[in-house]
Amino acid sequence: MGLGRAFQKFQEGDYQEAYELAQNATTNPVERRYLMAKCLWKLGQTGEARKLLDTIKGPLEDYIMTRYLDGAAKPYIEAAVPFKFGGFDDLDTYQKKVLAGNRMGLESSEYYEDFVDINTWKWKSAAKAREFEKIAGIDCSGYVQRVQQGMFKAAGVPYPIQGRTSTSGLSSPAVSTQINPGFKPPPPPDIKPGDMILLDYGHNRYGHSMIYRGRDAKGNILVTQMGGVPENGILAPEKVQFYKGTYRLKGMDKVRQKVLA
Questions:
Q1: What are 125-169's pLDDT values in tens digits?
Q2: Distance CA 222, CA 1 (A)
Q3: Which of 18, 20, 113, 165 has the most CB atoms less than 10 A away?
Q4: pLDDT of residue 23 exceeding 80
């Protein structure tokens, strides 16, 4: 049994009924206990509420942080911003390009074939650079950074990256700290929602970046990432072999403190 009726009763002010329904629910134990604690607080049993909250402090903090992360990712997911290799559009820029009728999306094969010289990593021409900029979309590292920017801005914490960087750049000690270096397979023991999971495919600077959201009941690693469009999904088991590491952006601990205050 889920928490739907319990939440409804809580909204209606029937805190005793809401507590009993939550107590008997078989859903997420953190959500269940959190709602039970809220009911006890409303019923004037503040001491019991605090005791219950203490039993789920760590998981509850992760749950709140995941909700905060999901709020920053949601606009990009709902807009279904397409994958553009090398793309870094924020929502306003993307929407303006769509309204202008610009092309949407670009795969890596075309990027290297038509736009960039893989030997020099420079644009093939100024015209190609201008054509590229007009294309609407975002890539995996761009998505990670735009979501993180939203999290940092909402928390009032300065974002540590100027401009944009690549998946490889996200692991730079200048902008992030590796969590439990050398620990494999993921997730490392000290990972928290909001941390970055990075993959390295070992050729042509290819990699993949995503943001950790938690784990499901089956143990799957939950992430928000860029596929063909932004999505909340799992770290596919076949990708684990390319695991480079988990990294925490500098300032993310301050974001967490602000969110949980």
A1: 999 999 999 999 999 999 999 999 999 999 999 999 999 999 999
A2: 23
A3: 18
A4: yes
User: End-to-end distance of the chain based on CA atoms, in angstroms?
Assistant: 31
pLDDT in tens, 170-219: 999 999 999 999 999 999 999 999 999 999 998 656 799 999 999 988 99
CA–CA dist 28, 192 (Å, integer):
18
Q: Partners of 197 in the beta sheet?
A: 210, 246
Distance, CA of 147 to CA of 131 (rounded, Å): 26
What is the rounded average pLDDT of the residues 74-80? 98
3 state SS of 73: helix
User: For 80-216, where are the alpha helices, taking DSSP H only?
Assistant: 91-99, 108-110, 126-134, 140-155
d(C-alpha 177, C-alpha 26), whole Å: 37
> Cα-atom radius of gyration of the chain, to the nearest Å?
21
Give 148's Cβ-side CA count (13 Å radius): 34
What the chain holds in terms of domains, given with CATH numbers, is 4-55 (no CATH), 61-81+138-260 (3.90.1720.10), 91-134 (no CATH)
CB 111 within 8 A of CB 85: yes
- pLDDT of 227 over the 80 cut: yes
